[in-house]
Amino acid sequence: MLERHELEAFLTLAEELHFGRSAERLHVSTARVSQIIAKLERRVGVPLFNRTSRRVELSPVGRRLYEETRPAWSRITDAFERAVDAGRGLTGLLRVAFTGPAAGQLLVGATRVFRDRHPDCDARIKEAHLPEVLPWLRSGEVDIALTCHPIHEEGIVMGPVLVREARMLAVPTGHPFARRATVSVEDLARVTVLQIPETLPESLREDRAPRRTPSGRPIALGPSAMTFNETLTLVGAGEGVFTVGAHTRRYFARPDVVYVPFEDAASVDWGLVWPADGATARIRAFSEAALDLAQAPASNA
């Protein structure tokens, strides 16, 4: 049976993928986090994390454990918070940002659920370009945002993944890849990959424009763009290619760009992020509403 401090340490490290940031969130030492994780791994019998000198990643067993325990833990902690909120009332305004039309649709649904559960609270939504998300959160312009993961940034909490979608490669219509049914991650060594701005977290930049393929072959990196439409315009102009989520094919159909599925790439993930020092009852309640909506069975109607 997991002790509470063990579960909290595991879940925090699974989200931060950094021992130092995890220790800060848990208000313990880095050595203490390392000791707890090592003890858990001895009990499980296999590594929960793969560690190198440069990065920490969930192992397959660790990822499965995270995916199976995080929703339950969130429900336990949120149930307690709801009991507290019932005693003092949950009121006020929540300002929520989103990036992209698909995230906007999910956010509208989550807002409806949130308002139904907490009629004394209101939520207002606004669209943000990806480079605006963290500045808005830090300045207090918005309280929480629905955007792409992973965002490993000091002082920012990355909530559970709400949506996972297939990864695709945006290429110019005249590119040889445009005539293929699928591409491989190794194919990125043969093209120039456009980047997202340097002001964004390195975790997200590496996700969208890796420097090497899984086999270690170098990838040529091209220019960056401030907006998604600008990025697609650069793709159409032949300046490079760009990895996107499958929803892009529906919401951003263009005559100069073709979207080709990857046959072997990890998914593109989406979820909520918020400031670590701004985790109010409203934030927790909204996160729960969004997670419940995302996990609800699709209607057959």
How much strand content do the residues show? Answer: 15-25%
- In the CATH scheme, what's the topology name of the largest domain? D-Maltodextrin-Binding Protein, domain 2
The top-level CATH class of the largest domain is: Alpha Beta
Strand order of the largest sheet: 4-3-5-12-6
Largest sheet, if any? 5 strands, mixed
Kindly report the average pLDDT value. Answer: 90
Would you give an account of this structure?
This protein has 301 residues and is α/β, with parallel strands linked by helices. It has three domains: 1-88, Winged helix-like DNA-binding domain superfamily/Winged helix DNA-binding domain (Arc Repressor Mutant, subunit A, Orthogonal Bundle); 91-162 and 269-295, Periplasmic binding protein-like II (D-Maltodextrin-Binding Protein, domain 2), CATH 3.40.190.10; 167-266, 3-Layer(aba) Sandwich (D-Maltodextrin-Binding Protein, domain 2). The chain contains ten helices and twelve strands. The longest helix is centred in the N-terminal third of the chain and has 29 residues, at 60-88. The chain is globular, with a radius of gyration of 20 Å. It comes from Streptomyces populi. Residues 1-59 form the HTH lysR-type domain. One of its GO terms (molecular function) is DNA binding.
